Amino acid sequence: MALITTPAIVLHCRRWGEADRLVSLYTERMGKVRGIARGARRMKSRFGSSLEPFTVLDVTFFDKGQEAQESLVCISQADIREHFPVLREDLGRMMAAASMVNLVLQITVERDPGPKLFTTLREGLRSLQDGADPSLASVVVQLQVLAHSGFRPQFDHCVVCESVPSESTIRFSPRAGGVVCEPCARRSQAACVMLSPGARAYLVQAKRWLVPRVTRLKASGPIRREVEAVLEAYLREILGRRLPSLGQQDPSWAVDPDRQKDRSSTQVMSPALGG
Amino acid sequence: MRNSAQQGFLDKLAREFVRLPGIGQKTAQRLAFHIMKASKDEALRLAEAIREVKEHVTFCVQCRNIAEGELCGICQDPTRDRTTILVVEEPSTLYAIEQSHSYHGLYHVLMGALSPLDGVGPSDIRARELELRVRGGEIREVIIATNPTIEGEATAIYLMKLLKPHGVRVSRIAYGIPVGVDIEYADEVTLTKAIEGRREL
Prior knowledge:
- The structure holds two protein chains of two kinds.
- In chain A, 37% of the residues lie in helices and 22% in strands.
- Chain A is α+β, with helices and mostly antiparallel strands.
- Chain B folds into two domains: 2-56, RecR Domain 1 (Helicase, Ruva Protein, domain 3); 76-169, Dna Topoisomerase Vi A Subunit, Chain: A, domain 2 (3-Layer(aba) Sandwich), CATH 3.40.1360.
- The mean pLDDT of chain B is 91.
């Protein structure tokens, strides 16, 4: 049994037993780890608010090792390094942060270290705290999380024949994992999301941006919606289901009702319809 | 044979106790032996109490508190302040607040909280029912007492946006240092909230 101390980000936290919490962490040293924090729900718990999602902390836990039958670690100490109060007070920012940590939670396997992914997620949460556009910051961070996890989507050229698409409307195939030219789209018969050249250029750039600079990002309404639709379709393809994200599921959230209506009318076409 | 049958009944009882929250194997065995040693009347009173709870206890149609009829005791009580509603996530929180004897208005139990991480939205909790109660016109203040967690905060923000347009006062219970602890052991978030929520003496 090893006692490990490492920086970590709280991805998820839920009730466990009488007064405990089951916590999912993304640690700098070990990647994703799940652990039990005994007594964490009690009023005078030593963990206090440190195990709330989106908190960056120094965590100490006992690890029985990957081979042990019980893969859960026992969290013994958690000291807050950084917390993001704005994410608790603004629903839009909270939802953007939730989409970032949810992707890391779903796409990573346990005990597979990814220091770059850790840094990306931490910088993403910082950018939301510092006033970045929640939706665009979420897109940029999710694209970079995908890149660090081996699922980088291809926007530069056709993912099948490697030609550079020249059409005024470009097709993104979630199944192929990138843009496809018209002939390849017709041949593959896979459903595609339609992209304007502006949205494609945005996605090409977004993969290269440094996360701390996303506070400077701007995008018009149509481009924003196209970019979000591409990412959502791609994530659904690789994860096999939709990421739990509030605004997308329930229009009655009414944080921005017009945007919810727009989202529901996103273009997803088969190649035949799109041509 | 007879002995093993008796052990079987006792084991069955222990297995039922183990299913209860906070009861482990040892405690379950101890409880089973206690029931065995108790008088028949005492044991049957326990069985009868469990049966009555399952047959007669339900949820109040107005606030979703535990009730033995259509309305709970609090909603039926004419001495309660009917202009204030305190919103909680679960009936167990309502009971904790009632024990404090510090609140004399009505309640509304949401039966959950919004969760951006788990995709729990407003249609999964009783938010619209609360809005309908507020629309009734008698309510002047809604006190939100959801947990100080991400889920509780999301719920509080959503309810504030939902209810404010109806012209009621929407307040949130205070955050801060629990009574009887040393401030030096409080974490950063709690301290920040406690300082933000300070009040003049």
